[in-house]
Write a structure and sequence with these properties.
This protein has 178 residues and is an alpha+beta fold. The protein contains 4 helices and 4 strands; from the N terminus they run ααββααββ. The N terminus is likely disordered.
């Protein structure tokens, strides 16, 4: 069962009426053991599951930002470089940018001085590429609001026409520490 985040609920308003074909919650999804804390990440996983249907991965061409307009502020869309040796920031949502120390859009992660080359974040991204499955194992938030925020995130892989993981769609929700 997903825990409802009151801040997210306020921002999203009447969620079910604004997201095309996505059911709130992840009960009964095909990714047993993945239970995001935030509604944002649960909706992101439900969207990914809807896109992939009976396939192991959705094709990147299936991704349509218009399907998830209300979730876009919580998105980081990454290009996978050389099978996961690096990642390029393609899109960073407005909500996520509020908690970053800079706008890294267009940059490689290896160019980001705040990212450890073999740290937990890069390891999780590579694991999603290698295993070809969602990863839900949030990292500790280290941005400018670390005194009062934690985060929940989920990494969702997308394949190209050749079946190679070429993009990662990451949903991020920053949550007040309890």
């Amino acid at each position: 069962m997903l825990k409802q985040n009151p801040d997210a609920a306020k921002r999203l308003g009447a969620i079910s009426g604004h997201l095309k074909g996505i059911t709130v919650g992840v009960a009964g999804n095909r990714d047993e053991g993945i239970q995001p804390v935030s509604e944002i990440c649960g909706l992101g996983l439900a969207y990914w599951n809807r896109l992939r249907g009976t396939s192991s991965l959705p094709n990147v061409s299936q991704f349509d930002p218009l399907d998830i307009v209300k979730l876009l502020p919580h998105v980081v869309f990454l290009e996978v470089i050389d099978g996961g040796t690096d990642f390029r920031y393609r899109v960073i949502g407005e909500h996520v940018l509020e908690f970053f120390s800079a706008n890294y859009t267009g940059m490689l992660m290896s160019e980001n001085p705040r990212i450890e080359p073999e740290g937990h974040l890069i390891t999780r991204l590579r694991r999603s590429v290698d295993l070809r499955r969602p990863i839900h194992d949030p990292v500790e938030y280290i941005g400018p609001h670390r005194d009062f925020k934690k985060n929940d995130d989920i990494i969702l892989p997308f394949a190209d026409d050749d079946g190679q993981v070429k993009r990662l769609l990451v949903f991020v929700e920053f949550i007040n520490k309890a």
